[in-house]
């Protein structure tokens, strides 16, 4: 298990692909790999005393620079304990190999999404940003929070409030607003587009939660809204903006392509 003295070496490893590894970099720098703040563990695999791969193990299990051999080794390590992860997510080959190693013991997942395009944009957006998109404020919470619940439920298939988790999820939404990581457009006080930055490092920021109410889809709100988010994030948070999208979500993929995102990898997600 990696700890505070391993932080520099871990960050050097993750920086080999700082956009794909932005979640792990964000978590490492926020917590300095202290287990009490990490809310889990960061496993490392060494060869000749050198860190060659890692795996974030908490509610999200995320391989970092893991080859198939590394992923198999992490799966063997995982089988020695109890599953804590509700989601396995990361580059496709590493996730697939890890899952094949633990599937017989971890039980049937609620859903698997195997070939999710991972998209990036490092230049200016290719459509005009919506000037009405802005960072949200605490006073917007009564509009932002229900939209976040609706988006999550539509995307994941269960409500984030399930099992008495409403207070925790509301706190997360409030935290993103406070950080300046929540963006939205309002028409006559009603939220009609939203997106959040999920995690960020000095080199990249990952966007999540892109959503337009069903009755306002098809108006171009998502493309112009995402262009505004990209421009704001690049100006104030990180030079590269990334996200990953379900392979079957062709309308979203077309929107991101219009904005200027390009595919750089494939992710996979296993959800429990």
From TrEMBL:
A Pfam family: DUF4081
InterPro entries noted in UniProt = Acyl_CoA_acyltransferase (IPR016181), DUF4081 (IPR025289), GNAT_dom (IPR000182), UCP21603_acetyltransf (IPR016794)
**Residues annotated as domain N-acetyltransferase:** 131-272
Superkingdom: Bacteria
Q: Which Gene3D superfamilies match?
A: 3.40.630.30
Please report the name of this protein according to its UniProt entry. Answer: GNAT family N-acetyltransferase
């Amino acid at each position: 298990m990696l700890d505070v003295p391993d932080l520099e070496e871990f960050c050097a490893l993750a920086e080999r692909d700082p956009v794909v590894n932005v979640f792990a970099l964000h978590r490492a720098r926020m917590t300095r790999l202290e287990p009490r703040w990490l809310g889990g563990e960061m496993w490392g695999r060494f060869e000749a005393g050198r860190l060659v791969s890692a795996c974030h193990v908490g509610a999200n299990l995320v391989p970092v620079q893991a080859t198939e051999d590394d992923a198999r080794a992490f799966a063997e390590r995982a089988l020695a304990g109890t599953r804590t992860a509700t989601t396995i997510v990361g580059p496709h080959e590493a996730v697939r190999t890890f899952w094949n190693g633990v599937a017989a013991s971890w039980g049937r997942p609620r859903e698997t999404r195997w070939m999710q395009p991972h998209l990036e944009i490092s230049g200016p957006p290719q459509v005009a940003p919506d000037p009405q998109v802005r960072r949200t404020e605490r006073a917007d919470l009564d509009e932002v929070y229900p939209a976040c619940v609706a988006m999550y439920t539509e995307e994941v298939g269960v409500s984030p409030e399930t099992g008495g988790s409403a207070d925790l999820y509301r706190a997360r939404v409030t935290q993103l607003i406070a950080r300046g990581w929540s963006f939205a457009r309002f028409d006559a006080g009603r939220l009609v587009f939203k997106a959040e930055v999920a995690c960020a490092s000095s080199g990249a920021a990952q966007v999540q939660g892109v959503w337009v109410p069903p009755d306002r889809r098809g108006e171009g709100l998502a493309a112009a809204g995402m262009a505004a988010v990209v421009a704001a994030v690049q100006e104030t948070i990180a030079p590269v903006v990334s996200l990953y999208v379900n392979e079957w979500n062709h309308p979203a993929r077309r929107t991101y392509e219009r904005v200027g995102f390009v595919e750089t990898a494939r992710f996979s997600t296993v959800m429990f």
